[in-house]
């Protein structure tokens, strides 16, 4: 397992699901790019309430940063090309909305 920090854009809306034991979790897909502008699909799953709520509050195409446990994978497209992807168990999600809230909290004030 690799601890990772991923920045990208949400692909579609996140969705809440329920496992066989009745526990809820959230799944999402994120499109991330590396320095060489190669695209990676990151399959995200969140079990904790805070990252789950953050993912559900976002819409398709919104920017976000996630941290958590990464697992590299390889998948084969319709043309037979092998492509990399990542699975991430999100423990923290940060968006532009969080940045404003954090800045206000650090300044010790309230939003204007």
Automatic annotation (TrEMBL):
The keyword Transcription regulation does not apply. One of its GO terms (molecular function) is single-stranded DNA binding. Gene3D superfamilies: Nucleic acid-binding proteins (2.40.50.140). SUPFAM superfamilies: Nucleic acid-binding proteins (SSF50249). Keywords: DNA-binding. InterPro entries: NA-bd_OB-fold (IPR012340), Primosome_PriB/ssb (IPR000424). This is Single-stranded DNA-binding protein. It comes from Hydrogenophaga crassostreae.
């Amino acid at each position: 397992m690799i601890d990772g920090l991923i920045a990208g854009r949400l692909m579609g809306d996140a969705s809440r699901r329920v496992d066989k034991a009745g526990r809820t979790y959230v799944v999402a897909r994120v499109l991330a790019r590396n320095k060489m502008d190669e695209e990676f699909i990151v399959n995200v799953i969140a079990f904790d309430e805070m990252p789950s709520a953050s993912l559900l509050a976002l819409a398709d195409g919104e920017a976000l940063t996630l941290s958590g446990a990464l697992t590299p994978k390889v998948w084969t497209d319709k043309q037979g090309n092998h492509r990399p992807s990542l699975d991430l168990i999100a423990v923290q999600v940060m968006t532009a909305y969080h940045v404003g809230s954090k800045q206000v909290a650090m300044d010790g004030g309230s939003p204007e």
